[in-house]
Design goal:
Number of strands: 2
Number of helices: 10
Distance between the termini: 41 Å
Helix content: 55-70%
Strand order of the largest sheet: 1-2
Mean pLDDT: 78
Shape: elongated
Radius of gyration: 21 Å
Oligomer: single chain
Length: 210
Amino acid sequence: MSDIPELPPLPERFEALLWELLKTRQSISEYELLRYLSEQGLSDFKPDLDPLTLFRAHFLLFHLLYRIQDQWFFESRGWLSIHTTDIHLQEMAFSPKSVERTPQEVHKDDPVKAYYLDYREFLNTQEEDVLGLLDDFWKKMASHPIYPINEGARLQAQQTLGLENQIVSRQSVKLQFRNLCQQHHPDKGGDAQVFRQICDAKEILLQGLN
């Protein structure tokens, strides 16, 4: 039996809303598109502070966008350019019949597109996976430094996570980190510097528990 899940149907209303929207404006960001779709009654795309819910809205949006990208290409409607800050429809400079490889063949060489077209990622990704992805992303964006572990650093880390005067365990660190993510993650309108401090504190405390 194949372990490849059946893809959800491409919602006609989603496609219609996207088509009308992109015909009337040059570009839209992911957040603006999520908010617009939610306002139009498509609740699966409602932006949410919960990391897993937000990830699912983001993944489903990009999954459908990449499928529509292929469909509109073959229908000669245009090439759908997809980026978190810039989603727009480009005019086609050539006919689909003149292309040697189909978009489905091309996406095998595009790891981002391949990732979003693999619906198993949507079904199998859990909250801890999402928090790990967010954490890794922002640490790379901040050129995350490695701090020496000493008593002063540990005490400061406990204070940053709100764990001062408490018994620190891997479970308590991860739980408090997850709670603070709800408030301070930049994707949710939080301050990037504060979030980096929270990430640093988590890493310091977890290293001290190894």
